[in-house]
Amino acid sequence: MLLEIQNLSKVYGVSCGECLDLTGVADDSCICPVCDSVVAMNRVSLSLDGKEVLGIVGESGSGKSTLLQLIYQDQCPDNGRIFYNGFCDRHGVPLNIFEASVSECSVLRNKEMSMIYQNPRMGLNYLFSAGGNIAEKIIGAGERSYEVVRNRVIELMGRLELPTSRVDNYPDTFSGGQQQRIQIAKALSSSPKLLLLDEPTTGLDLSVQAKLLDLIKELQKEMGFAMIIVSHDLGVINHLTDVTMVMKHGCLVEYGLTDQILEDPQQPYTQLLVSSIL
Amino acid sequence: MKLDVRQIEKQFVLHNRGGVRVTGFSDISFNVARGELLALVGPSGAGKSSVLKAIYRTYLVNGGSILFHRQDGTVVDLAVCTESSVLELRQREIGFVTQFLKVLPRISALQAVAAPLLELGEEEDAARRRAAELLAFLNIREELFDISPLTFSGGEQQRVNIARGVIAPKELLLLDEPTASLDEESSSRVLKLLGNLKKQNIAMIGIFHDQRKVDQVADHCYRILREA
Question: Among B12, B58, B84, whose Cβ lies nearest the Cβ of A260?
Fold first, then answer.
């Protein structure tokens, strides 16, 4: 097991203590009727195996991105625990990543996991060059030799079909699709075991999207990392993922093999979602 | 024994159609041994494809068990085992040759057929050579090899699909109407391939409509009747 999520909850606002029980799929709302807090994540449990690709689908505001951000420790939950394979305290006891110190977590963020955001502006520093951005992650993962870092940056840019002669140019001089590829190069530079992707190709034109997704799939097979992908596009989910979870109002509605979710959806919301494919 | 299906049943509940229940199939039991081909026969709509999908776990069953005997001697119930174990089995031990070819439009016929061998770690050249042999055996013209199979005729697509399914045969193969849209010559080539697979000790479950083909290639026959 690579990742084990237990009973994860996140409430935005001053929680009245009953928010989790008063919201969800049955109540058809994620806003607490008592205290108006927004429940972004409602007791979600989930586990992910080493080389699996998990897709997360669901309507806007159902908590998909929140889940990724919680796993990447961009946010703190109100409740719940996440265990990551091999992440233990000094005595070898598995450590909930939310109870770990900042320095302990930095290994997770810099080396074990990488996040690719929908908007490259979230994942890249626009005051650094393209190469500098990629190098930042390699250095964070522990490499100190300038030459090694520089060569790895150039190798990755080549792999992602970015012009290596432009390694010292700033991100905003690249096209949108290229900026996304810089972000992917950066994310892969530390050879992560878990890649988190938040709508990685939304807003890109179809041919660029297909190229990027093919590339991500190829790299995943080659490097063997696990992935969690948030997407609205069931075509993307079908193309890339092995298993899928469906979310609504912060709750996990249904989980299963991707082809089962698409061809034999069990829950009313999943059936509605699948019947909405164009 | 390779697969032992016991009293499986499937109902579809359509929540967005007022909760209507549609029976997919019920009380289905059969088994298949290594090196055997079991033919599923019966009228259209009786649930033959649904049974195959249930074995592959694309459909969830409402009852019964689907006991799969693994290479290592252990037995798993495909009806209830974890998604991760199903994924592992699909990768190594259970293959599904669907009725219609599903590939991305940017993949050539040769690439599509060679892919399963490459995944097993075979050399690129050797995999392409084997794929070309198989396509040629199934009467696909060489000039088509480097073109997307989605531009092919229905019968040609089906042969590409079969080539892809048998190039690196898994121990249990599910075949959904493997000869449905093929002419006599191509059909007999496909049946010959299936015969070879039996010699390699592969267990197969195939849907057939033509009794002559069933007699030719199947060891047993299981008839599914439409629900009254």
Answer: B58
Q: Is A218 on the interface with B (CB under 8 A)?
A: no
Q: What is the dihedral of CA A182, A187, A190, A195, to 10 degrees?
A: -150
Number of domains in chain A: 2
CB B36 within 8 A of CB B205: no
pLDDT score at B228: 60
Q: How many CB atoms lie within 10 A of CB A34?
A: 11
Tell me whether residues A257 and B58 touch, CB distance under 8 A: yes
Which domain does B200 fall in, by range? 36-58+84-223
Is the minimum CB–CB distance between B59 and chain A shorter than 8 Å? yes
Tokens of A178: 């290229």
DSSP state letters, B113-167? HHHHHHHTT--HHHHHHHHHHHHHHTT--GGGTTS-GGGS-HHHHHHHHHHHHHS
Q: Does the structure show a pLDDT above 80 at A155?
A: yes
From the list B15, B58, B83, which residue is nearest A271 (CB)? B15
Residue B201 — left, alpha, or beta (φ > 0 → left; ψ -120 to 50 → alpha)? left
Interface A–B counts its CB contacts (< 8 A) at 45
Q: Name the residue among A275, A273, A278, A213 with its Cα closest to residue A246.
A: A273
Q: Do A263 and B15 touch (CB under 8 A)?
A: no
Q: Find chain A residues with C-beta within 8 A of B83's C-beta.
A: 242-243, 255-257
Does A75 lie in the same domain as A32?
A: yes
Of A239, A256, A271, the CB nearest to B16: A271
My answer on whether A242 and A178 are in the same domain is no
Residues of B in contact with A263 (CB under 8 A): 53, 58-59
A18 and A112 assigned to the same domain: yes
- The domain boundary, picked from A192, A226, A248, lies at A192
Q: Which domain holds residue A179?
A: 124-192
Least confident span in A123-137, A203-217, B185-199: A203-217
A269 pLDDT band, cuts 50/70/90, is very high
**Does the CB of B222 have a partner CB in chain A at under 8 Å?**
no
Pair A14, A76 in one domain = yes
Q: Judge if A19 and A110 occupy the same domain.
A: yes
Number of domains in chain B: 1
- CATH number for the domain that contains residue B150: 3.40.50.300
